[in-house]
Design brief:
With 1168 residues, the protein is of the alpha/beta class. The chain is 68% helix and 10% strand.
Length: 1168
């Protein structure tokens, strides 16, 4: 590809947008020192990705943005674009389909920067990859900065090696090697991590193995104890069945006596009911009258408080009206004073405006006269510059003629001294070329046969390699998935364990929560809607711990039912048919509490019984509002669990917070268990896929190594033949190029010798004519200089008068502006004061209306107080009339209750006797059912047959012994059995991963070794060629002498390279002892040797010809012209000979101080 255009804007001194077309050959940039030539080179390097501000001759990167001048402000961004076009050569594969590529870099004053390829944002890495192995980067050989060419000779051996590696295009190998080393380091970290995990899992496995053995022994002892316990329970059950028949007859006799007493009590209960009804009516009437008295007293108190408040408010209103009236008087006085000041300022403004008009007229007259003088001075200045330019051109042409005459003479002597040597070399080269042609034809046949044999083997290797890579990617993907899933599974298990501790369980099985006698807790029979756990948990409280039984008899049959848990509930509790409706029209009412509970199948009545007549609201404010509105038939429960009871009592239920937490934990644990099941299923699927991928990869690896051996043998043969062929071709090419060069040089030198003699006479005559013309122009220039000096003094005098007038006018304008500002401030102050007066008047009117309203309210409260006092007197009279009737009814009721108590005492005696008998019967019945249920719960249905030789005492003793042995074993971790199996599988998985990582590490080391072999091979071949070309170009540039590149001792990948050079007629010596010109020529020889091996798209040379004399500059230009067919050259120079070589010449100067301007001149031959 070729560089076609450079576009720069706002970069350093190049403030305006500047576009430079780049020649396909040589483009030169010339101009005075400090005008910004090197800034163009810096712009190109910056666009290619240069990151060092110091390398760009700046202390910080934001200094590359145009900083401004006295007349121009600083720029907001720096932007450089490089445009490349396709020329048939190499072109980035990533940009196939594009005919041109535009690379742009921008830096904003805010610190933001961006990179673009074809106006699409990209990364810096994308740009560096684009020019990889082209020499176009910071340390590359294609960009030689100002004054740095000789530093190449004095560079460290490692830096010189880097340049040759760049030419060898091993940059991509370097990147691959770095990436492989990074992956190897990551693999080492993974191996270390797996080692740590494996050690930890091994430790856990060993610990769990001991616990698992103890758990297994426990299970054996428990099985024997259970067998004996079952026989003992069967023996006890048989004894209890015999005792129950004895108590049945005793119960029937007691029931007959109780029946007779009950008939007598029936009549007495009817009389009691009538008396209780009468006393209830009197009591209700008294409560109603008492409630009315309380309401009247509350109304009286409220009316008195409102009366006091109204009197206080009337005092505040009167005080505010007095204060506003005082403010009004003060504001009116201030307004009068401000209006007088405003009138005085307006008059002063008019006087200043009149004086400013007079001064402006005087300034316009002086400016008109100054314009005429300035035009006359500019005419003199133009004439002076034209004369000066003409004189400079004459002097330049004279010096050029002198230089050309000297160059012709030097060149003539050089041609004559080398003609004899070159002719002898030409004859020897012709003989060597014929011999090499015959050997090369034979070698080509051998190479073609070997290449045909290699192609099938290489195709097979590539196919297998692609399949291996695909399998490896699947292995890595599956491994990452399994590791991630194991981590997720561990996190889920940890969360479930934490939630289990909150709930209060130790094991995480899915079995139902039944106690030994089959009961369940209420909390285990329901689920709560998300977000309402606090409302349900804190409102139901310890009712969630109630145990559920089939009926009350089953509850009473429990030996310790009075101390077992907080309470009981039967499976079919009594449910009230009527449930109070929800308050309508209030958005704060969320629903009945039971609506947010989801009972399990068969437990809907249990949940309803415990949550009936509870209404959920959004907050306590809503609950209080509803209670005050008369809704007192149900309890109100807030979302956060507080309760407002029908009586008005508020319970915070903080003591029930744990129940809300348990409900939340249960819901979350259910979700986590479902997630854990999904993770385990996915983990099994990924492990199966991983195993398949590993088996496939092992098969492909064996196949790959088998084919690789055969291919390597063919490659070794091809490499040997190719190297031999390449050596012959290189040798033949060098001979051919040397012959062409020798023939061309001989022809050019002979023609040049004839031409130079004729030109010398012409140049001498022309020089005499120019000397006469020079004298005439110097005299005319002297006269014009004197006239220009007089004109300049007149302009300075006029300019001083104009400036004095401008200063006077400016002072008047400032004074006028100050007066105007003062007048404006007074006007705004007047407006504000007038608005304040209007607001105060409106406020007085408003206060008068408010005072009238408050006085009316005082009258209304007085009437309310009188009405409340009358209601209190009436209510107290009615209450005193009902009280005697109530006391009479209560006396009759007490007498009837004493009679009923005596009868009840008789019945209670019988009941106690019956209860004692029944209790004994029930005890045995419950004991029978309990033992039967316990036995069925522990060992399943059915009562076993007792052996004839069964001794219950010996059996009990043996069970006690077994229980003691079990107790001595301590706490048994039954989960260790399953945990040990899991740990064993985990250990096996980690061990397989360890082996996989070891194999991956080995493969990466093989890849790195392969990359290093390819790098060394490419470097060695390139080094040999660079060395040969360096020696060849050095000899041509110096006209003889010796030079060499020598590898220092050390590792093949890191050994440095030293440059040795000995100019003609000098002994080989240290590079530091060479002259500046010799160092420059030696460095140029080395750079162009690199270009000959690997031409870069373009080369930048910044004043590399500065240390060279004219003859060596001519040699350098001839060398540049030779290489310009392959690469473009962008050269910054002060040398006339280099400018003459250019196809396009750019001149850089300061059109405006501090801002660079670029002008161009195309020098290409129109025919060529």
């Amino acid at each position: 590809m070729k560089l076609s255009r450079i576009e720069i804007k706002g970069f350093k001194s190049i403030a305006k947008k500047t576009t430079l077309a780049v020649s396909s050959g040589v483009t030169c940039i010339a101009g005075p020192n400090g005008c910004g030539k090197s800034n163009i080179i810096d712009a190109v390097r910056w666009a290619l990705g240069e990151q060092s501000a110091k390398s760009l001759r700046a202390s910080a990167m934001n200094e590359v943005i145009f900083s401004g001048t006295h007349d121009a402000g600083p720029g907001s961004l720096a932007s450089v674009s490089l445009e490349f076009v396709r020329d048939g050569g190499s072109f980035p594969k990533t940009l196939e389909g594009f005919e041109q590529v535009s690379v742009t870099r921008r830096l904003f004053r805010t610190g933001e920067s961006e990179y673009l390829i074809n106006n699409v944002k990209c990364r810096l890495k994308d740009i560096t990859d684009l020019f990889l192995d082209t020499g176009l980067h910071r340390n590359g050989y294609a960009i030689i900065e100002q004054g740095k060419v000789k530093d190449i000779i004095q560079a460290r051996p490692e830096e010189i090696r880097y340049l040759i590696e760049d030419a060898a295009e091993v940059g991509r190998f370097r990147i691959k090697r770095t990436e492989a080393l990074r992956r190897l380091e990551a693999t080492s970290r993974n191996l270390e991590r797996i080692n740590d995990l494996l050690g930890e899992v091994t430790k856990q496995r060993n610990e769990l193995k001991t616990q698992a053995n103890r758990a297994q022994r426990y299970q054996e002892l428990r099985a024997e104890a259970n067998t004996l316990s079952r026989l003992i329970m069967a023996f006890d059950i048989k004894e209890m069945a015999d005792l129950r028949g004895t108590y049945a007859s005793e119960l029937r006799a007691i029931d007959d006596r109780i029946g007779t007493a009950e008939e007598q009590g029936a009549g007495l209960r009817e009389r009691l009911a009538g008396l209780e009804a009468l006393s209830g009516q009197h009591k209700a009437r008294m409560e109603q009258l008492s409630s009315r008295l309380s309401e009247a007293e509350s109304s009286l108190l409220l009316a008195k408080r409102e009366m006091e408040s109204s009197h206080a408010r009337l005092g505040d209103i009167d005080a505010t009206r007095v204060m506003i009236s005082q403010n009004l008087e003060e504001s009116r006085r201030s307004i009068g004073d401000e209006e007088e000041r405003s009138t005085a300022l307006r008059k002063e403004q008019e006087d200043l405006q009149n004086r400013m008009a007079d001064v402006q007229a005087q300034l316009d007259g002086r400016l008109s006269g100054y314009g005429v003088q300035e035009k006359d001075h500019e005419s003199l200045e133009r004439l002076y510059q034209e004369k000066r330019t003409a004189l400079f051109e004459v002097i330049t042409e004279v010096r050029a003629l002198d230089q050309r005459i000297q160059e012709v003479q030097d060149r003539h002597r050089e041609v004559v001294s080398t003609l004899r040597r070159r002719q002898q070399d030409l004859d020897a080269l012709s003989e060597n070329e014929e011999t090499l042609s015959g050997d090369l034809a034979t070698l080509e046949q051998e190479l073609s046969q070997a290449d045909r044999a290699r192609q099938p083997a290489a195709q097979e290797i590539e196919t297998v390699k692609a399949a291996m890579q695909e399998a490896q990617e699947r292995i890595e993907t599956c491994t990452r998935s399994v590791i991630g899933l194991e981590k997720d599974s561990a996190e889920v298990s940890a969360k479930i364990g934490m939630l289990a501790r909150i709930i209060g369980i130790e094991e995480l099985q899915d079995a139902s929560r039944y106690s030994s006698n089959g009961s369940r807790k209420v909390a285990d029979t329901l689920s709560v809607r998300d977000g309402f756990e606090a409302a349900v948990g804190r409102s139901m409280g310890n009712a969630l711990d109630f145990l559920i039984y089939r009926d009350h008899e089953e509850i009473l049959s429990l030996e310790d039912f009075r101390t077992r848990g907080p309470g009981f509930v039967i499976e079919q509790p009594h449910i009230k048919n009527h449930e109070h409706p929800l308050p309508a029209g209030n958005p704060g009412v969320l629903g009945q509490l039971r609506e947010f509970i989801e009972p399990h199948e068969g437990y809907a009545d249990v949940v309803l019984a415990l949550s009936q007549n509870m209404c959920v609201v959004d907050g306590m404010e809503t609950a209080v509002s509803l209670w005050k509105g008369g809704h007192r038939s149900c309890s109100f429960v807030t979302v956060d669990g507080m309760i407002l009871e029908p009586s008005g009592v508020i319970r915070t239920t903080n003591e029930h917070t744990k129940y809300a937490d348990i409900l939340k934990a249960r819901a979350e644990m259910k979700t986590l268990k479902a997630k854990g099941t999904i993770i385990e299923a996915e983990m099994d699927r990924q492990k199966a896929a991983l195993l398949n991928a590993k088996e496939e990869h092992q098969s492909l690896t064996a196949r790959y190594h088998g084919g690789l051996g055969a291919l390597q043998a063919l490659d070794q043969k091809l490499t040997a033949l190719s190297e031999k062929r390449q050596g012959m071709l290189n040798q033949k090419e060098r001979i051919h190029e040397q012959k062409i060069q020798l023939e061309t040089d001989l022809s050019q030198m002979m023609e040049l010798s004839k031409r130079l003699d004729a030109q010398a006479e012409t140049f001498t005559g022309r020089r005499k004519d120019l000397e006469g013309e020079r004298s005439q122009q110097e005299e005319a220039l002297k006269v014009l200089d004197e006239e220009k000096h007089v004109s300049k003094e007149r302009l300075s005098s006029s300019l001083a008068e104009i400036q004095a007038t401008r200063d006077l006018l400016h002072g008047l304008e400032v004074a006028a502006a100050e007066k105007a500002a003062a007048h404006k401030a007074i006007s705004e102050n007047l407006d504000m004061r007038r608005q304040a007066v209007a607001k105060d008047l409106a406020r007085l009117d408003e206060l008068a209306g408010t005072r009238q309203t408050v006085e009316q309210a005082v009258c209304a409260r007085s009437r309310d107080i009188e009405q409340a006092q009358e209601a209190i007197r009436t209510g107290r009279g009615q209450y005193d009339g009902v009280l005697p009737e109530y006391e009479k009814a209560m006396n009759l009721l007490r007498a009837a209750r004493e009679e009923a108590a005596e009868l009840r005492s008789s019945i209670d005696g019988l009941e106690r006797a019956r209860a004692e008998t029944l209790l004994k019967d029930k005890e045995y019945e419950v004991a029978y059912a309990l033992n039967l249920e316990r036995m069925e719960g522990r060992f399943g249905p059915g009562i076993p047959e007792l052996p004839e030789s069964f001794d219950v005492q010996q059996a009990r003793q043996r069970v006690n012994e077994l229980e003691e042995r079990i107790e001595r074993m301590g706490q048994i971790n039954f989960a260790s059995l399953e945990a040990f199996d899991h740990a064993q599988k985990r250990w096996e998985d980690l061990h397989r991963q360890y082996e996989d990582i070891v194999r991956a590490s080995t493969r990466l080391k093989e890849v790195i070794a392969s990359i290093e072999r390819q790098s060394i091979k490419a470097f060695t071949a390139t080094f040999t060629r660079v060395r040969e070309y360096f020696q060849e170009i050095f000899t041509a540039m110096f006209g003889g002498g010796k030079a060499d590149l020598v590898l220092s001792e050390g590792d093949e990948m890191d050994s440095g390279i030293e440059i040795f050079a000995s100019p003609p007629f000098k002994r080989l010596k240290a590079m530091s002892l060479l002259s500046e010109g010799e160092k420059t020529l030696c460095a140029i020889s080395f750079i162009f040797a690199l270009f000959k091996v690997n031409p870069s798209p373009f080369c930048i040379l910044d004043e590399v010809d500065a240390p060279l004399d004219d003859s060596n500059v001519i040699r350098l230009n001839r060398l540049i012209r030779t290489f310009s067919h392959e690469s473009q050259f962008l050269i910054v120079t002060h040398n006339r000979h280099t400018m003459e070589t250019a196809d396009i010449l750019y001149g850089v100067t300061f059109d405006v101080p501090g801002i660079s301007k670029v002008v161009s001149m195309v020098l290409e031959d129109p025919k060529g």
